[in-house]
Structures are given as structure tokens and as C-alpha cells.
Amino acid sequence: MSDNATMKNTTIHDMTTGSPARLIMQFMIPMFLGNIFQQFYNIADSIIAGQFLGVRALAAIGSTGSLMFFVTGWLNGLSSGFAILVSQWFGAKEYERMRHYVAMSIYLSAGWAVLMTIGLGIANEPILRLMNYKDSIMPDVKAYMGIIYAGLIVTAAYNALAAFLRALGDSKSPLYFLIISAVINVGLDVAFIIYGGMGVEGCAYATVIAQGISAVLCFIYIVKKFPILHLKKENFRFSLPACGKLMALGVPMALQFSITAIGTIIVQGAVNVYGEDYMAGFSAAAKIQNVICTVFVAFGATIATYVGQNWGAGKVDRVRQGVRCTQIMILAYSVIAMILVFFFSKYLTYLFISPSETKVIEVSVLYFHTVFWCYPFLGSIFLYRNTLQGLGYGLVPMLGGVFELAARSAIVVLVAGKTSFAGVCLSDPAAWISALIPLIPYYIYVTRKWKKQGKIAM
Fold first, then answer.
1. Phi/psi of residue 49, each to 5°?
2. Where do the H-state alpha helices sit in 273-315?
3. Contact, 263 vs 431, CB < 8 A?
4. Where do the TM regions start and end (predicted)?
5. How many whole angstroms separate alpha carbon 295 and alpha carbon 340?
6. By CB atoms within 10 Å of each CB, which of 22, 245, 268, 342 scores lowest?
7. What's the CA angle centered on 155, arms 253 and 390, to 5 degrees?
């Protein structure tokens, strides 16, 4: 069967024709729901731990969010960067070359996962010591993260497979697999903790097993439904230049995720100084905000695929159209999110902790009342960062992460332990605004340059 015939019989979506707004919304909604269910792993762990194991367990698991973001964000950034080249060659209708890049991506993803499992397993406790974890909570956090590190190979597998599907315009299938695995995760949490009598380790085992199931389902689906992604022996012939191009996009994207995560780890370390109530309240707020931000993340992943395909097809005008309409949709959603967290954050926190824990709830509400006004800036980061990545530029998006890290670190150094908790909260708005400083001007420069020249770079 030819590649063109194969495309008619799969859920591949060519985003180089049709209404940009409609295509972006159709792609974004499954991405958003998929991100919700991906977040659900750690959220479910936090909810069950907080409700059945108490404040200390919530503080232990919830406070690992920034560290989890650092670790999984690196793998996610790598696979997203690799997928950009896949989407560009798909848009250019160079299917054989596309499959070669898929094969090289598999090599690189597996290699990184193994290296990270070994390195992070060795450095587990020293990292936690640097984050100011106290001895009372250290055993739980160390055990939880150790199991997560051991399961990074399945995390890398799912990220890579899902990224390949999204590169070809299929954002629905990864969603279905995440729904299934999220339900399994909750069931295993209940089984391990409530009925099995396990502590936080039960949450970690549930997460790894559920992620492994989503990776297996994704692989089976590609084998059965995506012949265009079926790889031959010659596709796996190692190519240093191809790996170099993949790393040139993947590593800056991974660094961008990791730089952002390092900033949140610094903030978490500052919060840990204030004690377990602040750790639990900040953790609950972070979980709620992560859910709210899944719309921004979904728009970012969508625009990367949209831009990658249209850039590969040489349609610069459609790139600019897509960015404009996405910016409008992000601003509209930001207003809704601002209203939601300002008036209802108290009640959302009840998901994670009993209403009787008034101090924890006060901390969560204080965080939201400090940062809510800056959501339009946060949403715009995902838009322009992913647009530039879709265009094939990895360095400037990473530079945006450097600006973000510098601003967040400066605020923490100035206020942590010296002022109230609200001062630490201001590190997020400062970081979000700073990240946009290199992104928007460079996007304008790049699109104007290529529009004038009437060509693209591949």
C-alpha cells in the first residue's frame, strides 16, 4: 500500500489546508484532555495520599511536582523536539526520510532514559538534600522518586510514541490511551494504599505501571493503524548527521523544560523552609494550576505541529494566521482562568485536603491571589515558544527559559525566609513576564525575514 493510500485509511491529519482556527481547535481539544489525564497521575497520587495518609504524605508526594517536571520534562522536551523534524518531513511529503528520523528518535529516547535512570538513582538523596527536605519527610520522598526514576524507560516510550502520532496530526489516540491508564492508576492507588496498606511507594508503583500500559497501547495502535510509521531495517541504519539534527532540536527543548523545572525546584526549596503546612498548601495550588495550564500546554503542542507541517510545506502566511488566532483563544481562556482561581481556589483545594486544615487552604488561596493576574503572559509563553520550535529554532526558546530561571531565582534570593510567603509567590509572575522578552521579538524577526525571502529553512 502506498503512503498516500495509507493516509486515507488512518487518523493522520494534514494541517496545511483548511481553516487554521478550526484545525487548531480540533487538534487542541484532544491534546488538552490528554494533558489532563497525564496530570491525573500525580494528582490522583496526591489526592489519595492527602485524604488517606494525611498532610505529611501530601507534602511528600505533592512537593515532588517540580522535581517530576524536571525529570519527565527533559524526556518530553526531547521527544517533542524530535517530533518537529518528523512533522516537517511529513509536511514536505518526504515519508521515507520521515521514517528514518523516527528510527533515530527511538535510539536517542531509549539512550537518554537509561542514562537518566542510572544518574538520578545515584543522585536521588543528594538532590533532595539540596531541596531542604527535612528528615521527617525524607524517607517518603526518596522512596517515591526512586521508583519513578526506575520507570523512566516507560515514560520515555510513551512520550516518543505519542509525539510521533501528534506529529502526523493524530491527537485523539494518545488521549484514549491516557484515559485508560489514568483509570488504572486510580484503581491501583486505591488497591495499593487503602487495601494493600502501602505508603507513598504504592502511589509510585501505580504511576509507573499505568504509564507502562499507556505506552504498550500506543505501540499496538501504531502497529495496527499507522502503516506509514512502520519501520524497515534500513530505517534503523545509524546516521550521525540525522541524530545531530534531532539533538539540535531535542536538547534545547529539553533544556528549556529543565531550566523551567530548575526554577520551580528553587522555589520549592524556598517553600520547604516554611514547614509542612506551606509545603502542602503550595503543592495543592501547584496541582490545581497545572490542570488550569493544560489548556496553554495543549495550545503550545498544537501550534508546534501546525507550524511544523505548514513550515515544511512552505506556507508562511498560514503560520502567521495560526499564531494570531491562537493568541486570541489563549487570551480569552486566560480571563476565564483568572476568574476561576480568584473566586473558587479555596473550594478546589478541598480536593486535596480536608477543609479542617485551614492553614494549608489559606496558603493555597494566597498563592492564587498573588499570581492570577499574570495568566495571559503564561499562556503566551507556550504560544511563542512552541511556534519557534515548530519553525526549527531551539536556541531562543531555551533562552526564554534562561530569562525565566534568572527572574525566579532573583526573587527567591531576595525574599525567601526574609519576607512572607507571598513574596516567594511573586517569583512566578516575574518569571512568566521575563520569559517573553526574547520570544516575541524573535518570532516577529523570523517570520518577517522568511516572508521577504519567500523561502523556508529545512
1. -65, -45
2. 276-292, 294-312
3. yes
4. 67-90, 102-123, 143-168, 175-198, 204-223, 244-268, 288-307, 328-353, 365-384, 391-417, 429-446
5. 14
6. 22
7. 25
Q: Is the pLDDT of residue 391 over 70?
A: yes
Provide φ and ψ at 392, rounded to 5°: 100, 10
More confident residue, 234 or 334: 334
Residue 405 has pLDDT above 70, yes or no: yes
Q: 3-state class of 46 per DSSP?
A: helix
C-alpha cell of residue 63: 512537593
Q: What is the pLDDT of residues 345-381, one digit of tens each?
A: 889 888 877 788 888 899 899 999 999 999 999 999 9
Q: What are the cell numbers at 252? A: 534545547
Percent of the chain with pLDDT over 70: 88
Q: How far apart are CA 321 and CA 310, in angstroms?
A: 11
Q: What angle do CA 421, 427, 430 make, to 5 degrees?
A: 145
- Residue 36: all three cell numbers together: 489532563
Indicate whether 1 pLDDT > 70. no
Going by C-alpha positions, the residue among 396, 375, 379 that lies closest to residue 443 is 396
**High-pLDDT (> 90) share of the chain, %:** 21
CA 130 vs. chain centroid, Å, equals 24
Residues 112-120 have a mean pLDDT of: 93
CB 4 within 8 A of CB 160: no
* Domain limits, the chain: 16-453
Q: Which residue has the cell 485509511?
A: 9
Q: Give pLDDT, residue 52.
A: 67
Yes or no: say if 335 and 33 are a contact pair by the CB < 8 Å rule.
Answer: no
What lies within 8 Å, CB to CB, of 197 at 6+ separation is none
Among 281, 444, 297, smallest CA distance to 369 is for: 281
C-alpha to C-alpha distance for 247 and 344, rounded to whole angstroms: 43
Assigned C-alpha cell, 160: 516518543
Whole-number average pLDDT of the chain = 83
- Please report, as a single letter, which amino acid is at residue 275: G
Mean pLDDT over 186-213 rounds to 83
CA angle 66-286-165, nearest 5°? 70
Cell of 136: 521527617
Average pLDDT over residues 247-272: 78
| Torsion of Cα atoms, 449 then 20 then 74 then 458, to 10° | -40
Which residue do the cell numbers 517530533 mark? 83
Neighbours of 245 (CB within 10 A): 16
Reference 137, options 268, 287, 258, 291; nearest CA is 268
Give pLDDT, residue 453. 66
How far apart are alpha carbons 43 and 29 in whole angstroms?
20
State mean pLDDT over 427-443. Answer: 93
